[in-house]
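F.,

This is the one I mentioned.
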């Protein structure tokens, strides 16, 4: 499971990252709200842990912006503020849970696991674009009665294009969305996979095209 953790207190950040890593989570740690927002937009996370009191942007501002943009990744808020009004504000902004400081590491782990279990229980509807349907349960890309099951990376790449339809995504953005921040792959890998996906579209007889624009990026175009 991959988590984004935003905390500006170095000692706290180190302790939380250590315990999460020990329990087999992959963690990207950032120190301020602007960085948290950028990582959340570009990364494919199973969950996000946000401290409310951060420089540049507060955790509440980051959360509210992500929800306005349609990002539904589960979010756990951490803060020294324990008043009822602060909890209400966080939950109203779209948080999935709220944990006031100081907290026991065992409780943090339990909250994170519960948040991720709720996400796993949720099964999103198939994505639709043009004559295509992409099923998140089976990884099947279908056009009418014809379909093909996409391998994991092809699925993640095509899902990024479908969920950002009408918007150009650069090769670098697609690399992060499909492979993650810590990948050793480079943008040439994206080009190879896009070529394969174009062949998949022809294979199932879809009119949808992967449109490219020099120095800008890629997006889907309905036929």
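My design for it:
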């Amino acid at each position: 499971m991959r988590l984004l953790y935003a905390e500006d207190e170095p000692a706290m950040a180190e302790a939380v990252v250590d315990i999460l890593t020990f329990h087999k989570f992959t963690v990207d740690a950032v120190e301020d709200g602007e960085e948290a927002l950028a990582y959340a937009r570009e990364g494919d996370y199973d969950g996000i842990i946000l401290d409310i009191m951060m420089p540049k942007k507060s955790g509440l501002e980051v959360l509210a912006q992500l929800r306005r943009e349609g990002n539904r990744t589960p979010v756990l808020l951490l803060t020294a503020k324990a008043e009822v009004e602060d909890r209400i504000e966080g939950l109203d902004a779209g948080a999935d849970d709220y944990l006031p400081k100081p907290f026991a590491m065992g409780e943090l782990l339990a909250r994170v696991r519960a948040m991720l279990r709720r996400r796993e229980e949720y099964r999103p509807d198939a994505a639709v674009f043009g004559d295509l349907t992409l099923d998140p349960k089976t990884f099947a890309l279908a056009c009418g009665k014809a379909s093909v099951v996409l391998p994991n990376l092809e699925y993640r790449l095509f899902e990024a294009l479908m969920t950002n339809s009408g918007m150009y995504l650069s090769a670098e953005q697609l690399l992060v969305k499909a492979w993650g921040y810590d990948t050793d792959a480079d943008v040439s890998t994206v080009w190879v996979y896009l070529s394969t996906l174009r062949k998949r579209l022809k294979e199932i007889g879809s009119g949808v095209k992967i449109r490219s624009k020099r120095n800008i990026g890629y997006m889907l175009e309905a036929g």
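The two ends are 37 Å apart (CA to CA).

Talk soon.
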